[in-house]
Design goal:
Layout lengths: L2 H17 L12 E4 L1 H9 L6 E4 L23 H5 L5 E5 L5 H9 L3 E5 L5 H14 L3 H23 L6 E7 L5 E4 L4 H8 L3 E2 L7 E3 L2 H6 L4 E5 H6 L2 H8 L7 H5 L2 E4 L1 H4 L6 H23 L1
Parallel strand pairs: 1-2, 1-3, 3-4, 5-7, 5-9, 9-10
Antiparallel strand pairs: 5-6, 6-8
Helix pairs in contact: 5-6, 6-13
Length: about 300
C-alpha cells in the first residue's frame, strides 16, 4: 500500500473516531446535607434518602430521618460540622441564622442552595422541584410537586366550603421571654388561608413581638400554639395569665386555645394537605365546642 493510501486511511479512521461522541460519564452521586426538617422530609419523599450525609436537629420526619448524622441545631450549625461530612451540596431553609457557616462552606467549594420561605402554594411546589433538581431526582421532584399541590388544593377547597372564616391568632412561644405572632407574608399565614381561616394578625408583616394592645385588638376567635410552645409558657392557664392581651380576646375569654405538633404547623412539605385539614378541623371543633358549652 502506498504511503499516500496509508496516510489517507489513518486520516479517515481519525475522522471517524472524532465523529463518535465519547460515552457520557455518569454524574457523581450528590452528598447532601439537609438543614431544615422540611428539606429532609422532601428528600425522603423523593426517594433520595441515600444521598443524605447529614441533617440538622429539626429533621425528625419520617422516622428514618433520625438515623442520619447530625450537624447541630439550626442556629448552632458550624462550618466545621458541615465540612467534616464532605458534602457536595447543602440545602438550607431560612439561611439567615446560619449565613457564616454557609458562606464558609460555599468558599470551600460546596454548592449551597438557600431555600426561601414558601409563602404561596406555587412556591411550595417550586421548593420541591428545586430540591429534586439539586439532589439529582429532577423528574421525581416534578411529580411530587404536582401531587402535593393538587392534594392541597383539594383539601383547601373542602375547608373553604365550610363557610365563615374564623379569626385565628398563631402565637410562637419559646417561654414568656420569646413571644411572637404571625402576620402576613409568613408560611403560617399561608396555612391559615389554605384552611379557610382568617389571620387575626394580618395587618402586620412577618413575625412580630406580641404587645397587649395589638393582641387585644386582633379580635381572635381562636388561639393556636405549637405543642412545645404552649408547654413553654405553662399550658393554657399560664398562657392566658402571662401573655399580654391574650385574655382580652374573644378566644381568651372563652378559653379557645388549640395546639398542634410543631412540625404540623411550621413545615410546608409533603404533609401540607394533611396540615390544612388538621388545622381547619381543629379550629372549627374548638368553636363548636365553645358554642355548645355556652348553651
Amino acid at each position: 500500500m502506498s504511503t499516500a493510501l496509508r496516510t489517507g486511511s489513518r486520516r479517515a479512521a481519525l475522522a471517524l473516531l472524532l465523529a463518535v461522541p465519547l460515552a457520557a460519564q455518569p454524574a457523581p452521586t450528590p452528598r447532601v446535607i439537609a438543614i431544615g426538617g422540611v428539606v429532609t422530609e422532601i428528600i425522603h419523599a423523593l426517594g433520595a434518602a441515600d444521598r443524605i450525609v447529614g441533617v440538622d436537629a429539626s429533621s425528625t420526619r419520617p422516622a428514618a430521618a433520625t438515623a442520619h448524622p447530625r450537624v447541630g441545631s439550626a442556629r448552632s450549625t458550624t462550618a466545621e460540622a458541615l465540612l467534616a461530612l464532605r458534602p457536595t451540596t447543602i440545602l438550607a431553609t431560612s439561611p439567615g441564622d446560619r449565613q457564616p457557616a454557609l458562606t464558609t462552606a460555599r468558599g470551600a467549594g460546596v454548592r449551597v442552595v438557600a431555600l426561601p420561605d414558601a409563602l404561596t402554594l406555587d412556591a411550595v411546589g417550586e421548593r420541591m422541584r428545586t430540591i429534586g433538581q439539586a439532589v439529582g431526582t429532577e423528574a421525581a421532584g416534578r411529580v411530587l410537586a404536582a401531587r402535593v399541590v393538587g392534594d392541597v388544593r383539594a383539601a383547601s377547597a373542602r375547608q373553604r366550603a365550610r363557610g365563615a372564616a374564623p379569626r385565628v391568632l398563631f402565637v410562637y412561644a419559646r417561654g414568656t421571654g420569646t413571644l411572637f405572632a404571625a402576620g402576613r407574608d409568613t408560611e403560617m399565614h399561608l396555612l391559615l388561608d389554605l384552611a379557610g381561616l382568617r389571620n387575626a394578625f394580618e395587618s402586620v408583616e412577618g413575625f412580630k413581638p406580641i404587645t397587649a394592645e395589638a393582641v387585644a385588638a386582633s379580635g381572635a376567635d381562636v388561639l393556636i400554639f405549637t405543642e412545645s410552645g404552649l408547654e413553654s409558657v405553662g399550658g393554657a392557664r399560664g398562657a392566658l395569665a402571662a401573655i399580654p392581651g391574650l385574655a382580652l380576646t374573644p378566644a381568651g375569654r372563652a378559653g379557645r386555645l388549640v395546639t398542634f405538633p410543631d412540625d404540623g404547623l411550621l413545615w410546608m412539605g409533603p404533609r401540607l394537605a394533611e396540615s390544612v385539614t388538621t388545622v381547619g378541623d381543629g379550629v372549627r371543633r374548638a368553636l363548636t365546642a365553645s358554642a355548645s358549652t355556652a348553651r
